[in-house]
Amino acid sequence: MTPLTHLQRLEAESIHIMREVAATCDNPVMLYSIGKDSGVMLHLAMKAFYPSKLPFPLLHVDTTWKFREMI
């Protein structure tokens, strides 16, 4: 059996934390900003609960404030 790489260990730990939070909290919600970090979190969440749907909703808060580079 091949040992896990550092990145694989981080991914496994992240998935474990997401499952633990979903099982422990009454009303978990995941914030989603449509950015790259949110994209990674969404991918990890989908991987954690596949083939089921996410057990929590995504929440996007649109402040209408944008970085100049995004316009």
From TrEMBL:
Domain annotation Phosphoadenosine phosphosulphate reductase: ranges: 27-71
InterPro entries, per database record: PAPS_reduct_dom, Rossmann-like_a/b/a_fold, Sulfate_adenylyltrnsfr_sub2
Keyword NADP: no
Matching Pfam families: PAPS_reduct (PF01507)
Keyword Metal-binding: no
Keywords: Nucleotidyltransferase, Transferase
Gene3D superfamilies attached to this UniProt entry: HUPs
This enzyme's EC code(s): 2.7.7.4
A GO molecular function held by the record: sulfate adenylyltransferase (ATP) activity
Leader peptide range in chain numbering: none
PANTHER family in UniProt: SULFATE ADENYLYLTRANSFERASE SUBUNIT 2
Protein name from the UniProt record: Sulfate adenylyltransferase subunit 2
Gene source species: hydrothermal vent metagenome
